[in-house]
Design goal:
Among the domains are: 137 residues, Beta Barrel (OB fold (Dihydrolipoamide Acetyltransferase, E2P)), CATH 2.40.50.120; 122 residues, no CATH class. The chain has a 5-stranded mixed β-barrel. Strands 1-6 form a two-stranded parallel ribbon. The chain contains 8 helices and 13 strands. The protein is extended, with a radius of gyration of 28 Å. With 374 residues, the chain is α+β, with helices and mostly antiparallel strands. Helix 5 packs across helix 6 and helix 6 runs antiparallel to helix 8. The longest helix has 16 residues.
Length: 374
């Protein structure tokens, strides 16, 4: 026990705030989900920031926020941009510092980042990328619904090329999916099962997600397209142990459809995950001519919730903290109340003795030094 405590003490000394730059949490969804909302995909570098911010609403019927505009010089066009275009404007919501949205965060210190250049989440459903001059990488961009600039739809929509040994692989995977994205209708009719599944994955992620955070309603897509998507999904690989960093599993895509018992999907006598997968695949084969996939669209009649950019130490209006104390109710005392007798405090615990340690130069293991008895 003492040896363990001594090792913990050594670790605490070795890890200091001055040596910690950032904790990077690299959690990236499949490529098909990243590209589902992309209008343009380019490789480029941030060469400047426009001097004046642009006030614009992130989505229709939402409050305006300040967008900082980064100028990105294109080195390679992957999708959605004309060949003659050399630069694009990319807007992002810079995080406020001490409540002032005009003050940029300073580098250094201890920061928790999703990936380099991306700082936290300003409100649910959005990632707040903080572009800096000199950043280079792959940009998956969406057109602003009204203004003449692109936005980065999520915190995974920018892949840095700097200090990223996997960048070449990620770029190659993105290019492969972009070919499908250019003509999903043709890909759904391809003789290649993988092409059909890639197209189905992109379209399901596009139709069954809400990147804006606005109130949504559901509308059916074209019946012919729905049939092709369901058919491609039914013919996919439904093995339980199938894993991929570029594609979601067939069962994940099925769950995104929102199918339930009202659509005839019922799980009966299932014991394993493979039984569930078989039931999903069977339902798809039996209902590809009956069921029509529904897509999320903005509901113009719903009351939109305003976006509130957080400020340090300030709780936005109409937002209740997640933990609230229960109301105190004084219960009546029954019976005879005895006088309270003071009790002596317990003796203090002896101080913890931490043994000195040394590092074994051969095995690299911390060992306690022998205790001197003199």
């Amino acid at each position: 026990m003492r040896r363990m405590l001594a090792c913990f003490a050594l670790a605490a000394v070795l890890v200091t705030a001055s040596s910690v730059q950032a904790l990077v949490v690299a959690i990236r969804p499949p490529v098909s989900q990243q590209l589902a909302q992309a209008d343009a995909i380019v490789v480029g570098r941030v060469i400047g920031l426009e001097p004046v911010d642009v006030q614009a609403a992130p989505a229709a019927n939402q409050a305006k926020v300040n967008y900082r505009i980064a100028v990105v010089q294109i080195s390679e066009i992957v999708f959605g941009v004309k060949k003659e275009v050399k630069m694009v404007r990319v807007g992002f919501i810079a995080p406020p510092v001490n409540g002032d949205p005009n003050v940029q965060p300073q580098p250094g210190g201890i920061r928790i980042q999703i990936q380099p250049g991306i700082i936290g989440r300003p409100f649910p459903g959005y990632g707040n990328i903080n572009l800096q001059v000199g950043q280079d990488g792959l940009f998956m961009l969406a057109k602003h619904h009204k203004e003449s600039f692109y936005t980065v739809p999520g915190y995974n929509s920018f892949i840095t090329s700097q200090n990223n040994p996997n960048f070449a692989t990620e770029l190659r995977n993105t290019k492969e999916f972009s070919k499908v994205l250019e003509n999903t209708a043709a890909a759904l009719k391809s003789d290649d099962r993988q092409q059909r599944f890639m197209a189905a994955s992109i379209l399901i992620s596009k139709y069954r997600s809400n990147p804006t955070g606005q109130p949504m309603k559901q509308e059916p897509i074209a019946a012919d397209e729905s049939k092709l998507i369901l058919k491609a999904l039914a013919g996919a690989d439904w093995a339980v142990n199938r894993t991929s960093t570029t594609l979601p599993t067939a069962q994940d895509l099925f769950n995104q459809l929102g199918v339930n018992a009202n659509d005839g999907y019922k799980l009966v006598n299932v014991r394993t995950q493979q039984d569930i997968n078989t039931a999903m695949q069977k339902w798809l084969s039996e209902n590809e001519n009956k069921y029509i996939i529904k897509k999320f669209v903005v509901d113009p009649n719903a009351k939109a919730q305003p976006i509130v950019q957080p400020q340090p130490g300030v709780i936005p209006p109409n937002v209740k903290p997640g933990v609230r104390p229960l109301p105190f109710k004084k219960a009546p005392i029954k019976g005879k109340v005895l006088p309270v007798q003071p009790q002596p405090l317990p003796a203090p615990a002896p101080p913890l003795r931490v043994l000195p340690i040394e590092i074994d130069p051969v095995q690299g293991i911390a060992q306690p030094l022998p205790i001197r008895r003199d």
